[in-house]
User: Which sequence fits this backbone?
């Protein structure tokens, strides 16, 4: 069972550790999380998703069709990072939206940033929320991971 390593300027190491046991892999996984301002998240959303608006989080998975599957390093030789970890993708989080949503939902910014990061990681692992059933499965995983950090609603 591998662990998750998160690269970025913000320390999401506790969140990465909370994902331990939440996926199957024969190697360590890595992901990148960057925090951005409203102009940058809007640009990314417009250019990559054809949606010209500010959003809270965007995920860019590097692997397709992996939901619920054991990740085997040798099956993804082109997706290894420089340390030999299986790179699952990148996440961009808009800090201003996270701060606004924390106020709106009545909890702290740290919890909101961790929620958005967990949401993004779930997307990188193949979770989605296009149907109510998929949304329920994804929310359950997000809340399970956040509860390991003591960040319950």
Assistant:
């Amino acid at each position: 069972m591998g662990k998750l390593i998160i690269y970025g300027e913000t320390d999401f190491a506790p969140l990465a550790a909370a994902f331990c046991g939440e996926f199957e892999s024969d190697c360590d996984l890595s992901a990148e999380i960057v925090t951005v301002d409203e102009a940058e998240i809007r640009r990314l959303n417009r250019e990559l998703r054809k949606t010209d608006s500010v959003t809270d989080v965007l995920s860019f998975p590097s692997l397709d069709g992996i939901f619920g599957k054991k990740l085997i390093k040798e099956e993804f030789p082109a997706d290894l990072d420089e340390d030999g970890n299986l790179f699952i993708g990148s996440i961009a989080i808009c800090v201003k939206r996270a701060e606004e949503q924390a106020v709106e939902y009545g909890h702290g910014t740290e919890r909101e940033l961790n929620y958005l990061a967990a949401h993004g990681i779930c997307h990188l692992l193949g979770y989605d929320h296009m149907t109510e059933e998929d949304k329920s499965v994804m929310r359950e995983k997000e809340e399970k991971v956040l509860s390991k950090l003591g960040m319950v609603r």
In short: The longest helix spans residues 132-148. The longest strand covers residues 86-94. The CA atoms of residues 80 and 86 lie 5 Å apart.
